[in-house]
Write a structure and sequence with these properties.
alpha+beta, 10 strands, 38% strand, 29% helix
């Protein structure tokens, strides 16, 4: 054991994560005041009992170097990250999504097997508990000028169209069943064009 001065052990940056809580900016400010002059180490959990707040240390930095432990001082900078946020994914199902990228994959495949799958795997590794909503949407242009559907709208140049929305997931928790959610998303994506054609013929919105 060796004695380290406050100057050399003072933490410049602290990243804290919290889960299943709502923490406002004022809560964050009170929490940072509570942590002043306390020692911290990686994955340590801090609690503010009278405010019912709990957060875990994710990262500590002194200067530009990551450290495993140190002393939190009034000058320390904080970042709060939620592991249980409300997240909305909006996929615009335009015709370009069905075109090939330079690597030979469809852009829709990049969205599902790339973006969505990678995020689900990352959340699973971090033990996150986000509330996820997924919406597919598209604009369907109608060539028939005599179309009389009640939901029909017009662009500035007089083109008729319908806006189509498909809710794939609404406030779903993907902690345990993200693989099932990914399968469900793939199925809805593959059926999307069929749904659009059917609902456009009926003049309805989904």
């Amino acid at each position: 054991m060796r004695l380290v001065s406050v100057e050399h052990s003072s933490i410049d940056f602290v990243e804290l994560t919290f889960k299943d809580q709502f923490i406002s900016r004022s809560d964050m400010w009170r929490f940072t005041l509570h942590l002043s002059w306390q020692s911290a180490y990686h994955l340590k959990t801090f609690e503010l009992l009278n405010e019912n707040m709990r957060a875990q240390v994710k990262e500590l930095m002194i200067g530009k170097q990551r450290v495993d432990s140190g002393l939190i001082v009034p000058q320390s900078k904080f970042t709060f990250r939620s592991r249980s946020a409300a997240i909305f994914w909006l996929f615009q199902m335009c015709k370009e999504m069905w075109e090939f990228a330079e690597d030979g994959d469809l852009f829709i495949e990049k969205a599902v097997d790339g973006f969505a799958k990678e995020n689900f795997a990352r959340w699973d590794a971090l033990k996150s508990n986000h509330s996820l909503s997924i919406i597919l949407f598209s604009r369907y242009y109608i060539n028939n000028k005599n179309y009389t559907g009640t939901s029909c709208m017009k662009t500035r140049d007089g083109r008729l169209y319908l806006d189509f929305y498909k809710v794939v997931a609404l406030n779903e928790r993907c902690t345990q069943n993200w693989k099932q959610m990914l399968k469900h998303l793939k199925r809805e994506v593959m059926q999307f064009n069929t749904h659009v054609e059917k609902m456009a013929q009926q003049g309805k919105l989904v």
